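Do me a favour: review this protein, sequence plus structure tokens, and tell me how the chain folds. Record follows.
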Amino acid sequence: MFALEMLVAYPAQGVGKIEGIDRREVGGVACDFYIVRILANNITLMVPVQSAAAAGLRQLVSVKAARQIMDDLYGSLEEAVCTGQNWNRRFREYTRLLKSPDLREVAKVLRELLLIGRSKDLSFGERRLLEQAMNLVSGELSEVLDTSESDLREDLLARYAPPMAEADAG
């Protein structure tokens, strides 16, 4: 399914490169594992070949899907965000979505947290989730769209800057 040197995405970790396929004995049974090095932090993962899809290992999104995600991120800044939920429920939901193999779900979390940050200071937990979502989304989109990850991050942060910050800068 995956080839050596191929870029892949792993839930909650981000973009990685298949560096090898290794055979190990686990519980007396020989199993093949993908050796995946996560680009953002050099962590090496061993993902069983047989259950790679179930574990969420997948190819990077297509250019078309990446452009659609970018369009969604650059959409209206006026949409309502579900800030009515208590923080614990939102935190659990955001944490669950950040583990999703679907980058669109992760991008939704990023967009919501960026929108919330336009109207109030984010708590420590919200900032941590925002950073994780930003890393996952910008890491994959920059690879797929062949653009600078830091430029993509800066553009998003500027787009979602609180209205007061824009007025103060001018």
